[in-house]
Automatic annotation (TrEMBL):
Name of the protein in its database record: Pyruvate dehydrogenase E1 component subunit alpha
Gene: pdhA
Name of the top EC class for this enzyme: oxidoreductase
Cofactor: thiamine diphosphate
Catalytic reaction(s) noted: N(6)-[(R)-lipoyl]-L-lysyl-[protein] + pyruvate + H(+) = N(6)-[(R)-S(8)-acetyldihydrolipoyl]-L-lysyl-[protein] + CO2
Keyword Lipoprotein: no
Length: 339
């Protein structure tokens, strides 16, 4: 049950798999860049938290998921939606508040869901999605299947009280939940050193008997490898698992962040030395799994998908006024339905 550190690993996947991860990370990066542009043009309003820099976390973990596994996350959620296969067009349309968005334009960046892809949001209250994630895992345990729930939250959220109430219950009932702490080293403008009494968050489950691991979140293969172990533990009925994934966000906390709490050099250094997409690119080229031309073709394909999502969003109308009165209360409560 002891918590431990893992180190980065050499490629342990096929060239095609690695290419897929590169593609999936690039889709998130380019999508987020486009969202940033649309925000600057006034086409996206309200809160918008970009995932740029953290792509390897969700792509590495999605590579360990099977059909019917569930995921739930915070407000920094666009990457999670794209990685689990939600349509970029529907996500961008929601960001721009349009009728064809995942929440009919009424939820925006932080409030999207997909029953089909088992994506349970998008949550704005820091820490509040953690008990919900354990609840999703409880449902699967109750039904007796081997599904796992990936419950993502930040280093800041890891200091919330409800996280520890959840750890206790998840361990007590041996729930199949992977607690994924995306440690990007900042909670808004507060660094982890300034806010957190002990820096090794992966050890926070020890008091509850939950194993934990620290993972290099800038290397998609390290994330996948640690994720496989965590998921196997959960599927085998051994209860929850904690992954503290060390990552970094390149952009501000949200679109309105003056970024006075860190230096430009710090961000630049991370981008130059640790970027997850560049690392995957290097592994593809040096391992001769892809040529420069192959990668250019992937870049082009991604650019087209992202541009098409922006065009789709711009063409989609704003929701009609009477939409204000729909989707407020559930009409029917599903009874014991398998989801
Ligand atoms: C209960 C609660 N307190 C405060 C806030 C304001 N707030 C929004 S994000 C955030 C920082 C959270 O940081 P972290 O958990 O590290 O996630 P990150 O933004 O780095 O992904 C805070 C304090 C909130 N949304 N909810
Ligand atoms: Mg953080």
């Amino acid at each position: 049950m002891a918590a431990r550190k893992t180190t980065a690993k050499k490629p342990n996947v096929s060239g095609d798999e690695l290419k897929q991860y590169y593609r999936d990370m690039l889709l998130i990066r380019r999508f987020e860049e486009k969202a940033g542009q649309l925000y600057g043009m006034g086409l996206i309003g309200g809160f918008c938290h970009l995932y740029i820099g953290q792509e390897a976390v969700v792509v590495g973990l999605e590579a360990t998921a099977k059909e019917n596994d569930k995921r739930i996350t915070t407000y920094r959620d666009h990457g999670h939606m794209l990685a689990c296969g939600m349509d970029p067009k529907g996500v961008m349309a929601e960001l721009t508040g349009r009728q064809d968005g995942y929440s009919k334009g009424k939820g925006g960046s932080m409030h999207m869901f997909s029953k089909e892809k088992h994506f349970y949001g998008g949550h704005g209250i820091v820490g509040a999605n953690v008990p919900l994630g354990a609840g999703l895992a409880f449902a699967d345990k109750y039904r007796g299947n081997d599904n796992v729930t990936y419950t993502y939250f930040g280093d800041g959220a890891a200091n919330q009280g409800q996280v520890y109430e959840t750890f206790n219950m998840a361990a007590l009932w041996q729930l199949p939940v992977v607690f994924v702490i995306e440690n990007n080293q900042y909670a808004m403008g507060t660094s982890q050193e300034r806010s957190t009494s002990t820096q090794d968050i992966y050890k926070r489950g020890e008091a509850f008997g939950i194993p934990g691991e620290m993972v290099d979140g800038m290397n998609v293969l390290s994330v996948k490898e640690a994720g496989e172990k965590a998921v196997a533990h959960c599927r085998a009925g051994k209860g929850p698992y904690i992954l503290e994934i060390k990552t970094y966000r390149y952009r501000g906390h949200s679109m309105s962040d003056p970024a006075k709490y860190r230096t430009r050099e710090e961000v630049q250094k991370m981008r130059e030395e640790r970027d997850p997409i560049e690392q995957a690119r290097d592994m593809l080229l040096t391992g001769k799994h892809a040529s420069e031309e192959d990668l250019k073709a992937i870049d082009k394909e991604i650019k087209e998908i992202v541009n098409a999502s922006a065009e789709f969003a711009k063409d989609s109308p704003e929701p009609a006024l009477d939409e204000l009165w729909t989707d407020i209360y559930a009409k029917e409560v599903p009874q014991g339905e398998a989801v």
